[in-house]
């Protein structure tokens, strides 16, 4: 099983692997070396770079099939959901293409019965102490640059009870940290009852004894359910962490991008988070080079980044995705070099901000979960850091330390994107 793209794809792959595992099929995930005769690629179709990576991976395994190294090759996920017809024509060597959300068809195509009683069961691909919990599918937003609603369809919240069943199963298997994900977690419940169910879900998840940390990702600024701020502030299991992509800040660009919120409201929301949740670690994502972005818009974004001092920041350059609102209404007018230069300028500023903030952690003792240990060191995270995307805490020459356990760690050194610490003896 090969998973490309985002953590939502990871969850889909884990659900499929659990089905196969239940039929005593030996499953490997993203194995460098594998003697498996059947390969399933879960693709990403979000932006050009990701699409290219998916196509290259499929071609790599078509090659392996032609060399007789594998017998069967199946492709699923966003790329094949979006381009099924073209892929079928161009890649006849692939046994079958599947879209998103049809795990049942894949299981049947592989010759097994779909086990509907395995609701919530996952074969984890992450270290066993943390897991992504996908709370909904699809998206009802209208962001100009985004193809996801075209691929994943309308927003569909998963039932609170099903998510609790899934979370309890994960907790039973050793998961202590849940990372809540969706295309848009802010909208959770709105499709079911026209009011948010996110607070209800967070509070119920926090009642699961084994779960120690709950982390909220992919929040959307417009219509962010305010009561969630109080849950993050008051619930000891809620990480003081929030991932909320704002994409841009100038009113001109927020309008062109159809983000549904202006500069003033965006800044008020961030200030509200920070006043209600002292020490909150805010991760955001920005997009530069969208058609219509002027030098003045970019300067406004740069100043916003310098003033706001986000704790964690990711940046993308605009990708002209066919059938999106932007592609249907604008030319891809900004030169790729200018796009990249704008991204580099923002990331340079963020590096300095991140170093500054990390230095403020020195001499502080923090609760750290250990994700990984090698001969030289142990690698962990604080509640302010999400796996795979944020800072790590490095503990050199660790003794008697276990992956998945929590330790008090005194921070002794800080870099731009990592901290160094030493264990505090109990
Ligand atoms: S919120 Fe906007 S950017 Fe995110 S998936 Fe939905 S349409 Fe795309």
Tell me what the structure shows:
There is one protein chain. This protein is α/β, with parallel strands linked by helices. The protein has 3 domains: 2-118, Methylthiotransferase, N-terminal domain (Rossmann fold, 3-Layer(aba) Sandwich), CATH 3.40.50.12160; 130-359, pyruvate-formate lyase- activating enzyme (Alpha-Beta Horseshoe), CATH 3.80.30; 365-423, Nucleic acid-binding proteins (OB fold (Dihydrolipoamide Acetyltransferase, E2P)). The chain has helices at 7-22, 48-66, 78-90, 103-109, 148-152, 160-172, 190-193, 198-205, 227-234, 251-256, 263-276, 295-308, 325-329, 336-359; strands at residues 2-3, 38-43, 72-77, 96-97, 130-134, 136-137, 156-157, 177-181, 213-216, 238-243, 281-288, 312-317, 365-373, 377-381, 392-396, 406-414, 418-423. The strands form 4 sheets. It has a 6-stranded parallel sheet with strand order 5-8-9-10-11-12. Strands 13-14-15-17-16 form a 5-stranded mixed beta barrel. It has a 4-stranded parallel sheet with strand order 1-2-3-4. The mean pLDDT is 96. Bound molecules: iron/sulfur cluster.
The strand line-up of the biggest sheet is 5-8-9-10-11-12
CATH fold-level topology of the largest domain = pyruvate-formate lyase- activating enzyme
User: Which stretches of 5+ consecutive residues score pLDDT under 50?
Assistant: none
Count of DSSP strands: 17
User: How would you name the CATH homologous superfamily of the largest domain?
Assistant: tm_1862 like domain
What is the typical, i.e. mean, pLDDT? 96
């Amino acid at each position: 099983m090969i998973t490309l793209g985002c953590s939502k794809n990871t969850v889909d792959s884990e659900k499929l692997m659990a089905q196969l595992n239940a039929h005593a099929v030996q499953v490997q995930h993203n194995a460098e070396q594998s003697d498996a005769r059947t390969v399933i690629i879960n693709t990403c179709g979000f932006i050009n770079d990701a699409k290219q990576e998916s196509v290259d991976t499929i071609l790599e395994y078509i090659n392996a099939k032609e060399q007789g190294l594998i017998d069967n090759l199946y492709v699923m996920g966003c790329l094949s959901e979006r381009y099924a017809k073209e892929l079928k024509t161009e890649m006849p060597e692939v046994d079958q293409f599947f879209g998103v959300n049809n795990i049942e068809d894949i299981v049947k195509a592989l010759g097994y019965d779909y086990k509907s009683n395995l609701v919530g069961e996952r074969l984890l691909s992450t270290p066993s102490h943390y897991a992504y919990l996908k709370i909904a599918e699809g998206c009802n937003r209208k962001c100009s640059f985004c193809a996801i609603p075209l691929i994943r369809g309308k927003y569909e919240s998963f039932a609170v009870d099903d998510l609790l069943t899934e979370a309890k199963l994960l907790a039973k298997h050793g998961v202590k940290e849940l990372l809540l994900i969706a295309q848009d977690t802010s909208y959770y419940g709105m499709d079911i009852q026209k009011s948010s169910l996110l607070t209800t879900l967070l509070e119920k998840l926090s009642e699961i004894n084994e779960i120690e940390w709950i982390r909220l990702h992919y929040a959307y600024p417009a219509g962010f359910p305010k009561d969630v701020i109080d849950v993050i502030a008051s619930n000891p299991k809620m990480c003081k962490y929030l991932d909320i992509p704002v994409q841009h800040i100038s009113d001109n660009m927020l309008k062109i991008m159809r983000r549904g919120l202006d500069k003033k409201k965006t800044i008020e929301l961030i200030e509200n988070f920070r006043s209600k949740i002292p020490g909150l670690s805010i991760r955001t994502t920005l997009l530069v080079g969208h058609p219509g972005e002027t030098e003045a818009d970019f300067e406004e974004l740069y100043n916003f980044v310098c003033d706001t001092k986000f704790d964690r920041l990711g940046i993308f350059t605009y990708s002209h995705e066919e059938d999106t609102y932007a592609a249907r209404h604008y030319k891809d007018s900004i030169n790729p070099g200018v796009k990249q230069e704008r991204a580099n300028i923002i990331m340079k500023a963020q590096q300095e901000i991140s170093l500054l903030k990390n230095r403020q952690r020195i001499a502080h003792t923090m609760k750290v979960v250990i994700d990984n240990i090698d001969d030289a060191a142990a690698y962990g995270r604080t509640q302010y850091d999400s796996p795979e995307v944020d800072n790590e805490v490095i503990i050199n020459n660790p003794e008697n330390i276990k992956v998945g356990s929590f330790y008090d760690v005194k921070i002794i050194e800080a870099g731009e994107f990592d901290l160094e610490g030493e264990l505090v003896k109990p």
